[in-house]
Design a protein that fits this description.
The protein is built from 14 helices and four strands. It is mainly alpha-helical. The strands form two sheets. It has a two-stranded parallel ribbon with strand order 1-2. A two-stranded antiparallel ribbon has the order 3-4.
């Protein structure tokens, strides 16, 4: 993802700046998709060096240009098997070397801030007045359009939901899903009592409600979710198809489909543009973080997931070897 980010930025800059396109042409001819380059090398070849050359030309022409790069969800990036830290380190240590007319906007959760301690950025945090004002506008618009509460309760409902959201916009998505599930208007006291506080509160509410319902009505599915599906989902290095999840959990596809439908708020099934297959993905990285958090979250056993995946991989390799031997290999 680190190199993909660099190449994507280079392409967008080439589209916006004719001079950049000309500088990149020989680089692309030599390195193609940068498969043989490290992330740092790709940054220098595709961004730093060409932009420095463009900067010289612009200064010679006395032209003023401002380019703004937007890096969304930096804390969800990764480079190979490493977490977001490698990509964040590249951005914090190397992007500062770009020409001064190249500006940077980075979004991410609080853990994305520390790599930029040497910078002097203007951070907009969830509790920031501007963020709170934006959240208030969103809540006002949705409450007025959706007829979730009585008109006279809208102002008070906005304040209740604003406090519960903790400034996290993803919280609003789940909150309005909950409000939409009920027919008729909500009383203000119900809004205050039912909607959980914070994103982790939302995740716990969803999982607790689902677990209670499954244990009462379909305990075998509850066990399948806790002992197989969730550990696999949090430990798999890449998104998996429903059929793959079914095989790895050693269950039939109909049971897996039922569980995935019930978990779709947290793990939607989406089309993978690279493979053309439907795959199960976390709605947001915070879902995975909460699920594996043993103190504040659900405490899913990642080690168990790796054990399941390792066992399935071993059996697959063993079966392939046996078939190879039968074929006279």
């Amino acid at each position: 993802q680190g190199k993909a980010m660099v190449l994507c930025l280079a392409q967008q800059l080439a589209d916006a700046l004719p001079q950049m396109a000309a500088k990149l042409e020989p680089v692309v001819k030599e390195h193609g998709s940068a498969s043989s380059l490290s992330m740092l090398q790709a940054f220098k070849r595709y961004l730093l060096d060409p932009l420095k050359e463009v900067d010289i030309e612009l200064r010679e022409q006395s032209r003023d240009v401002v380019v703004v790069m937007l890096l969304d969800a930096l804390d969800e990036a990764c480079d190979g098997n490493s977490g977001f830290e490698a990509v964040a380190a590249l951005v914090s240590k190397e992007f500062i070397k770009l020409p001064p007319w190249v500006k940077l906007i980075v979004t991410g959760r609080p853990q994305a801030e520390s790599p930029f301690s040497a910078w002097t950025p203007d951070w907009i945090t969830p509790s920031n007045d501007d963020n709170q004002a934006d959240m208030r506008l969103l809540l006002q618009s949705r409450l007025q359009q959706g007829c979730y509460v009585a008109a006279e309760d809208v102002p008070a409902a906005i304040e209740v939901m604003l406090q519960k959201s903790q400034g996290q916009f993803i919280w609003a998505k789940y909150a309005f899903d909950e409000l939409s599930a009920k027919e008729g208007l909500w009383k203000l006291a119900e809004v205050e009592a039912v909607l959980p506080s914070g994103l982790y509160g939302v995740f716990r509410h969803i999982m607790s409600t689902l677990k209670a319902a499954l244990e009462e009505e379909q305990p075998e599915l509850s066990a399948l979710m806790s002992q197989k599906l969730l550990p696999i989902l949090v430990s798999a290095s890449v998104p998996l198809t429903p059929a793959q999840l079914s095989a790895m959990a050693a269950t039939d596809l109909s049971k897996m489909a039922t569980l995935l439908r019930l978990l779709s708020n947290l793990f939607p099934t989406r089309l993978d543009g690279n493979t053309g297959k439907m795959k199960v993905v976390p709605y947001h990285k915070s879902v995975l973080d909460w699920l594996v958090d043993k103190k504040a979250g659900w405490g899913v056993d990642v080690g168990l997931g790796h054990k399941i995946l390792g066992s399935v991989s071993h059996d697959t390799i063993k079966a392939a070897a046996t078939e190879w031997e039968r074929a006279g290999g």
